[in-house]
Amino acid sequence: MDILLKQVRLNDGESLKDVGIQEGKISAIEEHISETANQVIDAAGRVLVPGFVESHIHLDKALIADRKPNKSGTLQEAIKVTAELKPTFTKEDIYERAKKTLEMIIPYGVTAIRTHSEFDPAQGFTGFETILKLKEEYKNLVDIQVVAFPQEGIFKSPGTDKMMHEAMEMGADVVGGIPYNDAPANEHIDLVFEIAKKYDKPIDLHQDFSDEANDMSIEYLCRKTISEGYQGRVAVGHLTALHALPKAQLDPLIELIAEAGISVMSLPATDLHLGARNDEYNVRRAVTPIRKLRDGGVNVSIATNNIRNAFTPYGNGDILQTAMLAIPVAHLGGADDLPTVLPMITDHPAQAIGLKNYGIAVGNKADVVLLDTFVKTNAIIDIPERLYVIKDGKVTVENKKETIIHR
Ligand SMILES: [Zn+2]
Asked: Which of 29, 71, 237, 382 could form a disulfide with 265, with the two C-beta atoms 3.0–4.6 Å apart?
């Protein structure tokens, strides 16, 4: 064996297990493994989880909050400020910032990332090519999926249609889109499907990012997904407008989202910062209704979206911090709710982005994280040190924390 993890906790209330890793895979899970290994890690009852999945992030526009502030804090100004900055981005600049962001994220136990990488006729493929290059450079540390993302719209920004096809030819893994920032939204969705079908790729849209339930296109997206036979291959980020629907309209829509097999990625760090800016009192939370989606059988994830830019001027790359933020915001702190949050940054996003052989089971990929906590239910609220990150059966990160109290 390459690595033997002794006495890990996989589930609360169960006996501790030894986990063996060989040739990049989990080779054994037993109460006691007597076989020797090149490296033995004594977990002494600590929790082992699958590698975290950061299912929605923008590496290409991270770490630019100090260059041009979004003073109103609105989505409109965030888009405007970022569009003004984009022509100043060079390849080297994007490379350095995206690399730095990856190195913020990876030590926190993320082993897979889906990143939206944008292009438009003004900036060309400067950022997109850089992200593809980083995908290759970082493949031993993290699996990166690149989404071809038309941030400025497709019809609104002539020439982007052709670039979408070029991006797919260049190696994009997923077709992106942003119906709420383009008109007509339904035709935007039709075009995204046309491209996805041509290249046989999944779809991931920035969807219905608004405080109000006006002009939503999620229902059209659900019907289109079903009619095209794309169930299980479509994901949406934000979907904040859903929270503005009364129960009588919300319930059947959630049923439709579940039927269409559309995964929803909640992005609370951004949605809380930009949302409800016009509310002078009783300020709304402006986050998609995570619990209702979960209870309605929808595959829901939590993701970071942006780190330190006009959309989200904070964040340190720790996905556990993002999940922690969602707990009070979405009323997920109750005894029955808390255990449902960890899967929102592990199994659910893994399913949403189509990861194969994911999870702690014999034969699966050895992408795991040893947490410095002894209770799995507390895996998020403890925000524990990620003691070891193992990717493809190799230790990629070790973290040590030493606290000395002087009395
Ligand atoms: Zn996004």
From this structure: 237
Judgement on whether residues 297 and 390 belong to the same structural domain of the protein? no
By residue range, what is the domain housing residue 261?
Answer: 52-352
What residues does the ion ligand 1 have nearby, CB within 5 Å? 305
Domain match, 42 and 163 both: no
Q: Kindly list the distances between the CA atom of residue 221 and the CA atoms of 57, 199, 378, 400, in Å, as whole numbers in the listed order.
A: 22, 19, 36, 46
Residue 192 near residue 177 (C-beta atoms within 8 A): yes
The string of pLDDT tens digits covering residues 16-55 is 999 999 999 999 999 999 999 999 999 999 999 999 999 9
Angle between helix 91-105 and 126-137 (nearest 10): 40
Query: What is the 404 CA–ligand 1 centroid distance (Å)?
Result: 40
Q: How far is the CA of 252 from the centre of ligand 1 (A)?
A: 26
pLDDT, tens only, 133-161: 999 999 999 999 999 999 999 999 999 99
Distance 178 CA to ligand 1 centre (A): 9
Best CA proximity match to 322, nearest among 330, 67, 283, 284: 330
366 CA distance to ligand 1 middle (Å): 29
What spacing in Å lies between the alpha carbon of 246 and ligand 1's midpoint? 26
Residue where the block lists tokens 């760090």: 269
How far apart are the CA of 306 and the centre of ligand 1, in A? 7
Q: Within a domain: residue 75?
A: yes
